[in-house]
Amino acid sequence: MTWLVTGGAGYIGSHVVKALGEAGLDAVVLDDLSTGHADFVPEAVPLVTGSILDGDLVEAILRDHAVTGVIHVAGYKYAGVSVQRPLHTYEQNVTGTAVLLERLQSVGVDRLVFSSSAAVYGTPDTLLVTEDTPKAPESPYGESKLIGEWLLRDQAVAAGLRSTALRYFNVVGSGSPELYDASPHNLFPLVFDALTAGRTPRINGDDYDTPDGTCVRDYIHVSDLALAHVEAARRLDAGDTLLPAYNLGSGDGISVRQIMDAMAEVTGIPFTPEIAPRRPGDPARIVASGALATRDLSWSMRHTLHDMVSSAWSAHPRHP
């Protein structure tokens, strides 16, 4: 059994490929390398450079590698930038998913694990997000992920697709020193870049209604996330029926100040964060329940905050 990992040369996708290998499952990667890195893919895993928008290429991979299922991680993932590039975002995330599903149907592959996002919820008015929390995305990115889930739902009716979507918030850490988060928009690399450049990291607002005044979010280790994708794949291989979507949440969250304190401790670079004004629209707390994923996908938070920060720091390209 071979699983195609779209976006498998990226930060999250490469960890999924790693977890597949450790579980004894074969993989093949499709990645256009727009944000991925070819050297993130193990030498033993075939890497095809190209886009999921290229239907003929997708179908050739499915046939040539006898693919039995897909873990669909590829996509344009920058919510803020998606507001300025909505058409590009929809092309990559909606049209790309539709092309992929069309070719899966053509060759008879009926298993798919979809890397979705907690951005489908927007800014929920509940302290603990569940899978039933109303969907109200606030960016083209969040909307594109919700449409992707609708496409899976409709293909289940039309073509018997068996799938599930995994929704998550902030992914951090590293499962190997060679695999790192290179995003110019994510908190961990932004703070590490500031520290190694001699700048002081900043916190946007410290007067929220939270225990220490800073925003609280779900931060999950990328290796834990990858294991959930692999477990979902194994469950689909076994013929099990999964829910349409699962939240991969911590249930309690971590504050921005807690992260800053851990970063000072781990890096050995003492600093006092600058306090900047609140960013418009930042809610005080967004945390999800992972109870259903724990029940069905053996989901758990296997890594502590210290693990998250230390592993990310060890893999950071500018680590001294």
UniProtKB/TrEMBL annotation:
<dbReference type="GO" id="GO:0033499">
    <property type="term" value="P:galactose catabolic process via UDP-galactose, Leloir pathway"/>
</dbReference>
<feature type="domain" description="NAD-dependent epimerase/dehydratase">
    <location>
        <begin position="3"/>
        <end position="249"/>
    </location>
</feature>
<dbReference type="InterPro" id="IPR001509">
    <property type="entry name" value="Epimerase_deHydtase"/>
</dbReference>
<dbReference type="InterPro" id="IPR036291">
    <property type="entry name" value="NAD(P)-bd_dom_sf"/>
</dbReference>
<keyword id="KW-0520">NAD</keyword>
<protein>
    <recommendedName>
        <fullName>UDP-glucose 4-epimerase</fullName>
        <ecNumber>5.1.3.2</ecNumber>
    </recommendedName>
</protein>
<keyword id="KW-0119">Carbohydrate metabolism</keyword>
<comment type="similarity">
    <text>Belongs to the NAD(P)-dependent epimerase/dehydratase family.</text>
</comment>
<keyword id="KW-0413">Isomerase</keyword>
<dbReference type="GO" id="GO:0003978">
    <property type="term" value="F:UDP-glucose 4-epimerase activity"/>
</dbReference>
<comment type="pathway">
    <text>Carbohydrate metabolism; galactose metabolism.</text>
</comment>
<dbReference type="InterPro" id="IPR005886">
    <property type="entry name" value="UDP_G4E"/>
</dbReference>
<dbReference type="Pfam" id="PF01370">
    <property type="entry name" value="Epimerase"/>
</dbReference>
